């Protein structure tokens, strides 16, 4: 893969020293100067270009990484209050109704289902509805979400 390594400055000059081309009927070595010394045109410029490239890429990627981290931190910081309120609201909703440990929770569930069935099937439309309690719960939920 000579072309791949030539990108990074490895020209494989010892392998190419014997490469000859025909110029006006005579064979001329392609990689020799007029005084028959090998032309080494890749050492200085390649090293400088690779060093500059690696420095620019390293600095650029570190800056990009820092920018991405700071943007992620800013987005999380901006949203942390809302997440905290949402989680607090969920916990308060979970403990708003008194629950019992698992063996006894079946009894509470059956009582709730029977109350719902009784309200639906009851011919008496005088279901007790506590507006004051609903207002207090609504006010408390609004306070929690502030």
Low-confidence stretches: none
Strand order of the biggest β-sheet? 1-2
| Net shape | rod-shaped
Give the class from helix and strand content and strand pairing.
mainly alpha
Give, in order, the helices and strands. HHEEHHH
| pLDDT averaged over residues | 76
Largest sheet: 2 strands, antiparallel
| End-to-end C-alpha gap | 66 Å
Gyration radius over CA: 40 Å
In DSSP terms (H or I, runs of 4 or more residues), the helix count works out at 5
Topology summary:
Elements: H1 2-7, H2 13-16, E1 20-23, E2 26-29, H3 43-96, H4 102-121, H5 131-145
Explain the overall architecture.
With 146 residues, this protein is mainly alpha-helical. It is 68% helix and 5% strand. It contains five helices and two strands. It has a two-stranded antiparallel ribbon. β1 and β2 form a beta hairpin. The longest helix is centred in the middle third of the chain and has 54 residues. It starts with a helix and ends with a helix.
Question: Quick recap of the structure?
Answer:
The chain is 68% helix and 5% strand. By secondary structure, the protein is mainly α.
